[in-house]
Amino acid sequence: MRSLTRTAGLGSPPEAVAAPFAAEAQRAVQENTIGLFVACYPALNRRFEHHIYPSPEGILVIAQDITERQQHILQSAEESEARFRTLADNISHLAWMSDESGWLFWYNQRWYNYTGTTLQEMQGWGWQKVHHPIMCSG
């Protein structure tokens, strides 16, 4: 847990945090469930996770500094993405990704080398430009 000076810890949270925090606290009390609220405090350059526990007397809030944990998660995700891209760009196959509607948003480097295209040309339904029309008909 990060220790704060007395003055840094006093007072109400910043306005951008106060309303959503109050809404989550109210929900936790009304539904008698544990609430969870994550907020960034720019003045402290920190991110906190707040667990809100309702009780007959009011609420108990436990705040935990999760800044380092989130930085570690982001760094791990970036490293994982870099490993994926290295693998995907060095396989001998053409590879791509699409969303649930079929909109293509990523191709591996082998695709660009083979087709001589760019992401801007191929994004969405652009892949049809490099296929025979018979292959693209429904």
Automatic annotation (TrEMBL):
> Where do the PAS domain residues begin and end?
80-124
PROSITE patterns, A to Z: PAS
Kindly provide the name given to this protein in its UniProt entry. Answer: PAS domain-containing protein
- The protein's organism comes out as Dictyobacter vulcani
